[in-house]
Design goal:
single chain, 62 residues, mainly alpha, 65% helix, elongated
């Protein structure tokens, strides 16, 4: 699945860069793939451990 998604994004990008216009389905799929990848990276960055206290509780109720 990953290879097909990358191929779709690559074809749509190539068509656009070379002055063409990708079809509506290919453009929508490319947008969905890149949006999903961006969301996954953002989620992983926000959820990555900072290592401060080891707890997910950010309150200061000491």
């Amino acid at each position: 699945m990953k290879a097909a998604a990358l191929r779709t994004v690559g074809k749509a990008t190539f068509e656009r860069v070379t002055g063409g216009k990708p079809g509506p389905v290919r453009a929508a799929l490319a947008a969905a793939v890149t949006g999903g990848a961006t969301a996954a990276v953002t989620y992983k960055l926000l959820r990555s451990g900072g290592g401060d206290s080891g707890s997910d509780d950010d309150s200061d109720d000491d």
